[in-house]
């Protein structure tokens, strides 16, 4: 009996095994994207190939901020901007397509920039008698304007896109005659 009591007492004073801590899921903070990260670079639709990314640090004669400002200049104020531009070859260098991302100081200036872009003198006339200049499209849970153009000497209508989201403006121009490929490139742009 003494042995039983001794064994029982030992069982009572044996320390418990330490608890293994269970990991608590920690949400990784969202790292703010830089403006250049909004330009599609990989897994591009159709035959698009990114050949250059132009930003304020790109050397050469082109000042992308001034270029973008001239693209969205108009009657409405757009404030100060920052801009980057992706340059793409389409259909084995048949022609180039540009994706311009413009960061404005606020959403009102971004909306103004879109309106100024759509009111450019180049867009006063439709590309043909049977095709209207603009159309509405929806993707990535926001509305965009499809811009239809007909380049000089080329009979095919090209499809570009312009829209704003928050304080950013996105312009895909002049687009391609492959509407689906142009639309997919636009969908990949921004957020």
What does this structure look like?
The protein is of the alpha+beta class and 191 residues long. The chain has a single domain, classed as Protein Transport Mog1p, Chain A (3-Layer(aba) Sandwich), CATH 3.40.1000. The protein is built from four helices and seven strands. A seven-stranded antiparallel beta sheet has the order 1-2-3-7-6-5-4, sandwiched between helices. It is globular, with a radius of gyration of 28 Å.
Write the layout of secondary structure elements.
Layout lengths: L1 H12 L35 E6 L9 H8 L9 E10 L4 E10 L2 H12 L15 E6 L2 E8 L8 E8 L2 E9 L2 H10 L3
Antiparallel strand pairs: 1-2, 2-3, 3-7, 4-5, 5-6, 6-7
Relevant terms:
alpha+beta, 191 residues, 4 helices, Protein Transport Mog1p, Chain A
Quick rundown:
With 191 residues, the protein is α+β, with helices and mostly antiparallel strands.
* Helix/strand structural class: alpha+beta
Major beta sheet, strand line-up: 1-2-3-7-6-5-4
What does the largest sheet look like? Answer: 7 strands, antiparallel
Our estimate of the beta-strand percent is 25-35%
Task: State Rg.
Answer: 28 Å
CATH-defined architecture: 3-Layer(aba) Sandwich
What is the helix fraction of residues, given as a range? 10-25%
Mean pLDDT comes to 84
Low-confidence stretches: 1-32
Number of individual domains = 1
The number of E-state strands comes to: 7
CATH topology: Protein Transport Mog1p, Chain A
Order of helices and strands: HEHEEHEEEEH
Please work out how many helical segments DSSP would assign.
Answer: 4
CATH class: Alpha Beta
Taken from the alpha-carbon principal axes, the silhouette is: globular
Cα separation of the termini: 77 Å
